Amino acid sequence: MAIPYEVVLASEAPEFQQRVKERAARLIAEELNLREMRRLRKLTQARLSKKLKIGQEGVSRIESRTDLYLSTLRNYVEGMGGKLSLIVEFPDQPPVVLSGLGEGGAVRKSRKRASKRSKRSPGSKAGRRLAA
Domain limits at 59? Predict the structure, then answer.
């Protein structure tokens, strides 16, 4: 006959019980998906969609995707009032916070460079290709 978890835990010292409960809460928090996170923040898809300036169906699509742009995920998290951080972990080093990914500034800079290339003079190689 199996012994229920609660019975086993109740037989342990109060400090141990508290550590087990805290660890369980941390593990559960690490495994939330976007929909569960939104619900914990007490937000409906409709309310979040207004903050993100997209339709409710857009929020639903984001929540059901398994592969997102970092900028989309960042906007979603910020729309709920949070901040997205990316942590890189290697077995032989302490965790490192990765910065600069999915931020609007990096995209804008690359677009400016691309537009400067297209405005080259007709004597340049790019200009000759455009003129041809």
Answer: 34-131
Is the same domain home to 27 and 47?
Answer: no
Spell out the alpha helix ranges (H) of the chain.
5-10, 14-30, 34-40, 45-52, 56-64, 70-79, 104-118, 125-131
Cα-based angle 27, 32, 33 (whole degrees, multiple of 5)? 155
For the chain, give the longest Cα–Cα distance: 86
Give 130's pLDDT tier (boundaries 50, 70, 90). very low
Tens digits of residue pLDDT in 81-117: 999 999 999 999 999 998 877 665 433 333 344 444 4
Residue 40 sits in the same domain as residue 16:
no
Name residues whose C-beta falls within 8 Å of residue 122's C-beta, 6 or more positions apart in sequence. Answer: 128, 131
Kindly state whether residues 58 and 113 are assigned to the same domain: yes
pLDDT digits (tens, 9 = 90+) for 31-85: 788 999 999 899 999 999 999 999 999 999 999 998 999 999 999 999 999 999 9
| Cα gap 27→108, rounded to integer Å | 37
